[in-house]
Amino acid sequence: MSDVIKDTLSLFDQGLIGRFRRDCQNDWLQFTQHRFVKELAAGTLEQKEFQQFLIQDYLYLHDYCRVVSLAIYKSNDFTEMQYFASLMQGLLNAELPFHIKYCQERGITQGQIEKSSKTLELVAYSQYLLSKSMQGDLLDLIVLLSPCLVGYGEIGLRMSIDKCTNIKNNPYQSWLNTYTDSLYIDLIKKSFYFIDELGKKYGAEQRYQTLLEKFTMSVRLESAFWNVGRANLLGAIS
Ligand SMILES: Cc1ncc(CO)c(N)n1
Questions:
Q1: Which of 96, 222, 227 to mutate to test the pocket of ligand 1 (most atoms within 8 A of CB)?
Q2: Which residue, judged by its Cα, is nearest atom 10 of ligand 1?
Q3: Which of 152, 154, 177, 217 to mutate to test the pocket of ligand 1 (most atoms within 8 A of CB)?
Q4: Distance CA 194, CA 175 (A)
Q5: What was the ipTM of the complex prediction?
Q6: Hey, what domains does the chain have and what are their CATH numbers?
Q7: Whole-structure pTM value
Q8: Whose CA is nearest to atom 5 of ligand 1?
């Protein structure tokens, strides 16, 4: 089992994603080895903090889906459209129902989510994605989205083979399983190939530096997002 996971993890080092990850290594490590991630793996994360994270992430997923629908609109052929439609389907039919289930298990109601203030971390990330995705072509757009697309998968896979992970009585195990589920991982595998294809089609080589800047900013916003559960109310706006 762990060989299959290691093979899958080696894909993260290849192609355009591999190059971006290497070229913003510090930021990437801060994101994927964040304090929140370590506490999740150990099962020591405060329940309250996780609940706040779930609420903010629910609100984030709404904006993320909006950006994916913009990608469908921006697609120039049916192959591109099909890829983004499958991503949308994965979000709406797999990740979101799981997310709603975790909220329900923790007694978080729909009304509570709708009444919640957005944290500055959420506003910054969502607004960055929503505004930047309006500019540029489909390659710019997928680069903006790719830390979000592949990051949780890498985190989930690494945790699943890390000896330090508490798998026996970890209250966050079912949430972690979402991101190692074969549906989620298959989508990521498809994404590596698709991003490389778009890279060739839309000339990633010629504008690599601009793309790297977009990727890196999304990675930093992902790191900041891990703090949403701790963001105090003074830092929240509605
Ligand atoms: C902020 C954030 N990034 C990535 C994912 C994975 O889809 C998520 N649910 N939330």
A1: 222
A2: 57
A3: 152
A4: 27
A5: 0.98
A6: 2-229 (1.20.910.10)
A7: 0.95
A8: 148
